[in-house]
Amino acid sequence: MLCNPSSRRTGPPGIGSTAVNDSVGWGGDMVEALARRVRPVFLSLLAVGLSGCALFTDPAGDEQAPCPTAKLPENRQPFDFVARESLQKLVERNANSDKGDTDKNRFVRLGEQGTPLSQQQAKYDSAAWARDYSKVPWACVTDNRTGLSWEVKRNDLSLQDRHWTYTWYDASLTDGREYAGQANGGKCLEGSGCDTQAYIDAVNARGLCGHDDWRLPQAFELATLLDRRIDCPGSCIDQRYFPNTVKGGYWTSSPFDEFICYAWAVDFELGDTTGAHKNTPLHVRLVRGNWLKSPALEKHGDVP
Question: Which of 62, 172, 176, 203 makes a 20 to 30 Å CA pair with 209?
């Protein structure tokens, strides 16, 4: 089945896409950024507002890709409108706050063994946090707002290097109702195991920050790291805690509701959620833990 203007896609539009929702106030800057970044594989869901369906393309070329349609099993929930509305509240709150008005205790830097580092606070000064990282690199970050812990990418051509890409792959999807994706279709260390499942297995085998339960984040989880206060579009994440974040999409585990060949991703260059064919090589940032229902979260309405 081709995705064309008459096709129905049941997933949500991208968070904050100008053609769909400009409540964050991006205006012309967002449109210009989107115009500069026209890629045949990884397109913003701005297209949803223009044609009624996501404008997906085949990884091998510019033609629209055929993709089977199927309803997800009941135990596989897509990134839906309820999650989108909750996430929008969080993103808008960050976007409307001054860059100096931040929760100083939100993020905690962790060392290789998962213990908090002595140096935690950093000014919005790229030179300052770069010095911090060069002196004592941190391997993970815990978000006290959500209770989740996140992988920090590296820049040393190691397993967790920021430049590596991976195709979406889950070998457990064997019942035919979902597309498992493509194994080893990205570019990574030693040229093998370049898919999301292999990367998860490799990181867990090493016990990153003392744990072996790292996983691919859901779309809602990864999008909580979006920060549009500093340099967004451009770098829509707090680099004081998440250095080595590169331009491009980062995979999530969240599937599309009907188009089984596609999954959600988060773009930290444009500050938006978007979708891509599972055979597309994208970046990965792993997460561990479960969503924390704290009084602060419930006060702000950030819990879906």
Answer: 172
Q: Provide the CA 248 distance to its chain's centre, in angstroms.
A: 10
Distances (CA, A) of 32 to 29, 187, 226: 5, 29, 19
Q: Residues near 80 by Cβ (< 8 Å), separated by ≥ 6?
A: 11, 12, 257
Residues 195 and 278: their CA atoms lie apart, in Å, by 10
Cβ density class 215-246: b for 16+ within 10 Å, e for less: ebbbbbbbbbbbbbbeebbebbbbbbbbbbbb
Report the predicted TM-score, pTM, of the whole model to 2 decimal places.
0.72
CA-to-CA distance for 114 and 135, rounded, in angstroms?
17
Each residue of 54-76: pLDDT tens digit?
A: 333 445 544 445 566 555 555 55
The DSSP-derived string for 96-120 is: TS-TT---TTSEEEE-TTSPBPS--
Could you tell me the two tokens for 262? Answer: 């596609």
CB 122 within 8 A of CB 254: no
Nearest to 87 by CA among 168, 149, 146, 140: 146
Residue for token pair 């792959």? 169
Are residues 283 and 250 in contact, defined by beta-carbon separation less than 8 angstroms?
yes
Tens-digit pLDDT profile for residues 151-193: 999 999 999 999 999 999 999 987 777 889 999 999 998 888 9
Helix (H) or strand (E) holding 276, with range, is strand 272-277
What whole-number distance in Å separates Cα of residue 270 and Cα of residue 169? 25
